[in-house]
Write a structure and sequence with these properties.
Distance between the termini: 44 Å
Helix content: 25-40%
Structural class: alpha/beta
CATH class of the largest domain: Alpha Beta
Number of helices: 11
Number of strands: 14
Largest sheet: 8 strands, parallel, barrel
Low-confidence stretches: none
Bound molecules: phosphoenolpyruvate, manganese (II) ion
CATH superfamily of the largest domain: Aldolase class I
Number of domains: 2
CATH topology of the largest domain: TIM Barrel
Strand order of the largest sheet: 7-8-9-10-11-12-13-14
Order of helices and strands: EHEEHEEEEHEHEHEHEHEHEHHEH
Length: 338
Amino acid sequence: MFVVMRPNSAEEQVQNVVRLLSDMGARGHVITGATRSVVELLEIGNRLDRTKLERAPGVEKVLDEPAPILAADRAAGAHPLEIRLGGRATLGGRRIGVIAGPCSVESEETLLEIAVGVAEAGAVALRGGAFKPRTSPYSFQGLEEAGLQMLAHARERTGLAVVTEVMCCEHVERVQPYADVLQVGSRNMHSTPLLKAVGQQQKPVLLKRGWCATLEEFLLAAEYIIHAGNPNVILCERGIRTHEEYVRNTLALSVVPEVKRLSNLPIIVDPSHGTGRAHLVAPMSCAAIACGADGLLIEVHVDPKRAWSDGAQTLNLDEFRALMQTLPAFARAAGREA
Ligand code: PEP
Ligand code: MN
């Protein structure tokens, strides 16, 4: 059981709840978050009086299960959170935002060519991995520091915000000076130390759904980041693993309207990892925008066949430009702009 305090309730009120619990024969464990505290019942006594707890000063509600509280806090009629990515770009506002770039940063020239191409086509941010979470230890693992410098250089040249992945706590500080948005990938969505670490710094976080995670687990991962002090979380649906082998992952677009119903966090869709097939990226991008996504994350390369990772799901610049031209109609149909 969890006693959820109101935002900024007084310490005295929290201690009062702990005292009440003790009088009821239970033990309360206080978890202090950036905006509110939660008292978890570690031992449930037999004199538990739920109504008394619910009526105690400073208490918002009492829950039976741990549930996303901050991440799934959508007040009726409230606007979604509009998150500034860096520069003038935002995500979550009326205008949909497209983040694009190569799976891995490979070289200064290639990255710059891609960055200029996606910027001209209307992308708001450049995404490229310098630390790559690869399934095989024999696959290319990323250029690390050199890759980060190339990203920062591409940002200077194009004005695009930079999004790049952090795989462990140690990366958070290393990546900070170079990136505008820190990405937590699908493999690390369950890494609670990493979620806390990105929650304790101020740059927005792009949180990808774990491929085996339920929507509730996805929102609870966002909860870790918000609870640690960083409210600027952008969710990213990137497909889940199912029995289907035709596609790399099954893109679960139904979470988009569901997140919109439950939460004010922006949600974008990654049809590249979500399908694993370049020819499916454009139709699934249009579908994502049509069902209310705030944006897209798309892998783009000057020559996908030669990409060092994920070439099969990567668009070339012509394909990306063509896709960007089809999006405004879908955005308008969904009441948005592109
Ligand atoms: C990526 O975005 O390059 C990536 C590795 O994606 P995911 O974490 O969704 O597998
Ligand atoms: Mn990739």
